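Project outcomes to date are best conveyed with an example. Our students and postdoctoral researchers have been running inverse folding experiments weekly, and each run begins with a structure described purely in tokens. The record below, which covers 226 residues, was selected by the lab manager from last quarter's runs and is presented without edits.
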């Protein structure tokens, strides 16, 4: 995949595959192109070259709406909610069935207690749970999550990752971009390192080397094996 903005190139031939029931962790320093990769995968940014396939079908020309209808959802950095709408209204946009919303409330009582409150007044952790919790009732084929634990307390991070683990168990393919390496590596099946818009390495979680991780986050070569 080759993509960028206003004629400039950010991604230079990035090739990734996210399989059902697996987690692909995309790591790299700020400016590496991780969010751009998420936007291309979700259909928010058109590709300059390359092909996007969903279940083997060429979906390159599909925009965000077409990708969503094909089961590809994006949880963007900064929470994917409508802050001016209530919790109930936010849930109803994705879950039209009242019983499905009731199941969310049973699972997350804090959301039930505040269902008439504007979503923008919730804590960061509550907003993230509101964004992700409905997916347990209707698991997407693919979930692209851009830094889902950003700004959250450690306890809430654990809850978010437990929820993501349930989605994986339900067969969802997850592409996760994170700044907290420890948490994401505990969940990942495959790890990809992005540097200056190029994929420097991709392989099983068990083969990730500490030196490679340091380089991915700090942009500093540590003298480890290539």
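After processing, the design step wrote out the following sequence:
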């Amino acid at each position: 995949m080759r993509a960028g903005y206003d004629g400039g190139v950010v991604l230079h031939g990035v090739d990734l595959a996210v399989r059902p029931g697996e987690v692909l962790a995309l790591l790299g320093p700020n400016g590496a192109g991780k969010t751009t990769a998420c936007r291309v995968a979700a259909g928010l940014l058109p590709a300059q070259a390359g092909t996007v396939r969903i279940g083997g079908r060429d979906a390159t020309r599909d925009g965000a709406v077409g990708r969503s209808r094909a089961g590809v959802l994006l949880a963007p950095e900064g929470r994917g909610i409508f802050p001016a709408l209530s919790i109930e209204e936010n849930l109803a946009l994705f879950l039209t069935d009242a019983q499905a919303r009731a199941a969310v409330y049973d699972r997350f009582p804090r959301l039930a207690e505040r269902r008439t409150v504007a979503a923008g007044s919730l804590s960061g952790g509550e907003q993230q749970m509101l964004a992700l919790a409905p997916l347990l009732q209707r698991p997407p084929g693919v979930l692209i999550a851009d830094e889902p634990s950003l700004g959250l307390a450690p306890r809430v991070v654990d809850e978010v990752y437990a929820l993501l683990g349930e989605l994986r168990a339900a067969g969802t393919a997850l592409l996760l971009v994170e700044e907290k390496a420890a948490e994401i590596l505990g969940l990942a099946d495959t790890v990809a390192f992005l540097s200056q818009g190029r994929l420097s390495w991709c392989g099983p979680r068990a083969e990730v080397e500490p030196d490679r991780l340091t380089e991915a986050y700090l942009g500093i070569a540590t003298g480890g094996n290539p």
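Residues 154-169 form the longest helix (16 residues). Residues 219-226 have pLDDT under 50 and may be disordered. The training component of this project remains on track.
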